[in-house]
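fyi for ur records
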Amino acid sequence: MLKGCTSFGQICWRKIQLISKPLLQLAPDDGYLSYHDVRLTKEDIDTLKSDWLTDNCIAFWEEYLEREHLSSYKNSNIVLLRPSMAFMLLQTKDPLTLREALPDFTNTTHIFLPINDCRNVEEAEGGSHWSLLLVSVLDGVSFHYDSLSDMNFSEAKLVSNRISMLLNRPLRFNNLVDSPQQDNGSDCGVFVCIQMRHLLLKRLLSRNSSQKVSMSMGGRTVNASAGRKEMLKIIEEKRREGERRRARSLSPYRKGSKTPPRIG
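which gave:
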């Protein structure tokens, strides 16, 4: 039993306090976890608990899906485009000028894009709503999943048109009106992440080549609260793994390091 604890409940609460203490000591911009190409800050973690998700949170989720799941399907040609790249497409009138900054789509079958309604290029972490655009290059269709009716309709359609220019082929824009709907003003990013995983793992990667798969999310529900907890749990697991790796490191700078735990 931990010192000063007289019951199981007190033990649990004491453990939570001990775990939470390092996070409370961090400033908003301090690094919390470096996961391959994504650096999460304390502010990112705070928003993931109950607020509007940052670009970094969604970028981490995409990186996680790629590293932990998509990498197992060697023959797949699915691209999870980061929020920054989707934003560049929204803001750039001639998307052909972005070819060198974007992945090579020559053999790509599907592209996932988080859509943000921010139109101000000078506003960091701007916008007020996230939605998900899934481009099926194979079928020539863009599927739009918006958890607030058609709030991002114009932004998603514009990005779809610009992807069409990059692919040099027409895309039919399908705004899926039966998409699961959020009941508050802050869960849109979580809806994007959870639906992205479901569509990737349960629809695209689980089918065989001859199977016709519905891309509708109609009739499904998204538990945003559970989604937030799961994402936080994954981040904490990766952070602890990074701390263990640093503890085993022979580097003389590992003690007292101010850099966040790192994976990859």
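The first helix runs from residue 8 to 24. thats all i got for now
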